[in-house]
Design brief:
Elements lengths: L6 H16 L21 E4 L2 E4 L5 E5 L9 E4 L5 E2 L10 E2 L7 E5 L8 E4 L3 E2 L10 E2 L7 E5 L8 E4 L18
Antiparallel strand pairs: 1-2, 3-4, 5-6, 7-8, 9-10, 11-12
Length: about 180
């Protein structure tokens, strides 16, 4: 038994084949190629297909290298204003931290390290969290004594003062005898 093919599916298939054959598919399509990762040495950074040598700590890249594996032009950071702590390929230095009113400067900013701030006396911040605002140190109640003083990174630790135990032997504090 011979079957007759319906003309509509054949027409549709024919149009699809013609469309695909007419569509340009360039063999060197730049947008569809995977960009190969630039592999540079440890003391280099990638820039526009080249590997440029890093600038030293305390400096930044003013002009990138023009030839592979060379250093461009490095300019110094501004003392007390900006810094870079490590060799880098940065196009500008990082701004120095300015200590807020509730903090004091422990170490000034240099061209190779940021300023270090800590809470003023009477205030603290937990070292486990970023310190946005220093907290006022706690005061012990009248029935407590200070076990550990407040520091810039820890709050005051208080402990209860207990009345002397009447059943324990008394010690003469002058000579240590009971």
């Amino acid at each position: 038994m011979l079957r007759t093919l319906h003309p509509l599916p054949l027409l549709t298939l024919s149009v699809v084949i013609q469309f695909l054959a007419a569509s340009p598919v360039p063999s060197d399509d730049v947008h569809n190629r995977t960009v190969r990762q630039q592999e540079c040495y440890e003391d280099e950074y990638p820039h526009e297909g080249k590997c440029c040598r890093t600038c030293a700590a305390g400096t930044f890249v003013f002009a990138h290298c023009t030839m592979n594996h060379l250093r461009g032009v490095c300019n110094p950071c501004t003392p007390g204003v900006s810094y870079t702590a490590a060799p880098n390929g940065l196009e500008s230095c990082l701004n120095c931290q300015v200590c807020k009113d509730d903090k004091v400067t422990v170490r000034s900013c240099t061209t190779t390290s940021d300023a270090l701030c800590q809470c003023k006396p009477g205030y603290y911040c937990s070292p486990d969290e970023p310190c946005e605002v220093c907290n006022r140190c706690s005061r012990c109640r009248k029935d407590q004594r200070i076990k550990a003083m407040c520091t810039p990174t820890t709050n005051t630790v208080c402990e209860d003062t207990s009345p002397p135990d009447p059943t324990s032997p008394k010690t003469d504090l002058k000579d240590g005898h009971t």
